[in-house]
Every structure is written in structure tokens, then in C-alpha cells.
């Protein structure tokens, strides 16, 4: 099954482009309530269109003629409603609301910055690490795994050597902020160990600073910012907000135009999603092509379509520092419960996949079939980025 890690990409995975998918976005956009001050409101959806077409010619040629994917239009509209509801709740709660306090502290510059996420996933050339994801389901693939307790995955990912953990908090993926809080709290058990606790990424459709404040309050070390959902102006604003709240941002791009936007706003961690949001095809060659245009010092993360160990090694050799893996690990972890025999039931394939992806191996001399099994059980347990004797 094709691996797809972006929350946006999962919504469209397996879909086929139709006329409906390409309907004009204006037919989907709902008007927003007027602002109490009387100022006109511009939705993130419209702001993304204006920013992508008016402020960056290279993006205008890429996105302006095609418009946003209809699935993204629908998601942004839902997120707008969620943000409005959250802000209304904050208004009713008054100055004592935790997020209001957090926003005030950030505005005053009273929050210390952290580089826990970038520090965990930045690897030397020729070395790769895994950002392991917790995701119960996706709108297209349905239920991926039974997750009665996210601490099971938090423990497994840590012991397997994952550099960081990504947690879906969007309702379409059956995720919640409580999942993120639980993982953050569980990782505290590894303080004083080497390596230390895994930093946690909030994986969601971030369109407003209040969502960043939510992530920080829940203990996240980083958030995902999707260029296709924001445009240049809004991306710049949210990147600055992320820094004010002491977090880092994984900025996701899908093509060269979006990469130019990410570079222009000074993104320090850029993820290339190999899924085309208009054709829904996955092509790892997109990752291979775009990384050649990465600025020096920017951390490169590969997302989607990573199915075999040789895929991981190929991306590693191209210069990617981290691989964000979701559906593949969630499905593989179910072998613990659904193995055909006692041996299979006792062996967690997800654990082995992480070790294999990070293992020292050669694309040239590696196998083309059953590649996932290679690197799992090396005698010295030596893997790129980690050495356990």
C-alpha cells in the first residue's frame, strides 16, 4: 500500500480526479461572520489564494491557474469554523483562559525558544532518522490501527529509535489534543536516558496562531505548516508566531513553486510531500528533484510514498535527514495482535521497519524485493544515527 503521511494527502489518497474535484473554489467558500471591530475579515482560504497569486509570481503560475484542490477548500472551511469556536470559548472564559495567557506571554516575548525538534532530526550527511507517526485512521483508508492507548506507540517508537513522534490531532483522523498531551507526558519517562525523550510534532491543518498556542500548551515541540493551505503571507505570519511560542515548524511543500515560498520566508525545516494534490499520484522522484534546490543548512524531511527499506536508503543518500512515516508503521504494528502464528504475533513489524530504515545499507547492493526485512536484525544493532552495542 502506498505510504502517505501528510494529513492533507491522506484525505485524497486513493481518490481519482474528477470534475467535482476541480469545481471552482468560490462555490465552496462560506462567508465569515463580521468582525466586532467592523474590519473586513479575510479567510485563510481566500488569503492563501491572494498570497499565492499576488505576492509570488512563481507560485501564481503554479497555483493560480489550477486553484486549490477542493478537498483542501473543504478542510480549510472546517478549520475556520473550529478556530472561530475556540476563540469564542476563550472570549467567554475571559483573561484566565490558559490560551489567552499563553498568547499574552508570546506577544510580550516572555517564552523561551526551543530547538528540541530540529536538534533531534538534524543528522550528518549520509545519515537518516525516522519521525514516527501516530494516526488511528484516515478519511480515505479508513481505520489503520486499533489504538486504545497511544502510550503503546509512544513506548514502541522510542525503543525502536525514532528521533521524533508526530501525532495527528485532527478529528478526521480520530486524533485529539489529548493524544498529543498523553504522548508528551509519557516521553518524560525517558528523561535522563540516552537518547532522551522524543520531541513531539503536532500534525494538523494550522491556519491560526491560536492553534499554535494550543500545541505549545499541550507540550508539542513543533507544528506542521502546509504551504498549499496558507500561501506566502500567512505562512510568514504563522512561522513568526511559532517562534514567539517557542516552537519550531515543519514547513510542507509539494512542488518547486511551494519550495520557493518556503525558502523565501526562511523556513529552517522543510518537508517534501511526494503526493501531487491535484493528480493524487505519489512519486519519490519529486523528493529527489526538490532536495537539489534546498538551501544550505535547511533540514530536509521526506514525506509520503516510503514503502521499502531501499526507498529510505535512496532518500538518505540524496541528502534527506528525516523520513516522516505514518500509515506504514500503524498497519505494521498490528502484527502484534493479528499475527498468523505465535512468532508473528510476538514480533512487532513496525519496530523492525524503523530499525531497517535507519540501518546502514546500500541502495546499489540492497535487494529490490523483500527489502523491508533488511537491516532489521544486524548483529551489532548498528544503525545510522544510533549505535547500540
Automatic annotation (TrEMBL):
GO biological process, one term: L-tryptophan biosynthetic process
Assigned EC number: 4.1.1.48
Compartments where found: Plastid, Chloroplast
Single Gene Ontology MF annotation: phosphoribosylanthranilate isomerase activity
Alphabetical UniProt keywords: Amino-acid biosynthesis, Aromatic amino acid biosynthesis, Decarboxylase, Lyase, Tryptophan biosynthesis
Domain Indole-3-glycerol phosphate synthase residue range list: 83-334
Superkingdom classification of source: Eukaryota
Pfam families: IGPS
InterPro entries per record: Aldolase_TIM, Indole-3-glycerol_P_synth, Indole-3-glycerol_P_synth_dom, RibuloseP-bd_barrel
GO annotations of cellular component type: chloroplast
Catalytic reactions on record: 1-(2-carboxyphenylamino)-1-deoxy-D-ribulose 5-phosphate + H(+) = (1S,2R)-1-C-(indol-3-yl)glycerol 3-phosphate + CO2 + H2O
CDD domains (UniProt xref): IGPS
Pathway the protein takes part in: Amino-acid biosynthesis; L-tryptophan biosynthesis; L-tryptophan from chorismate: step 4/5
Name listed for the protein in its UniProt record: indole-3-glycerol-phosphate synthase
Organism expressing this protein natively: Cyanidium caldarium (Red alga)
Higher taxonomy: Eukaryota, Rhodophyta, Bangiophyceae, Cyanidiales, Cyanidiaceae
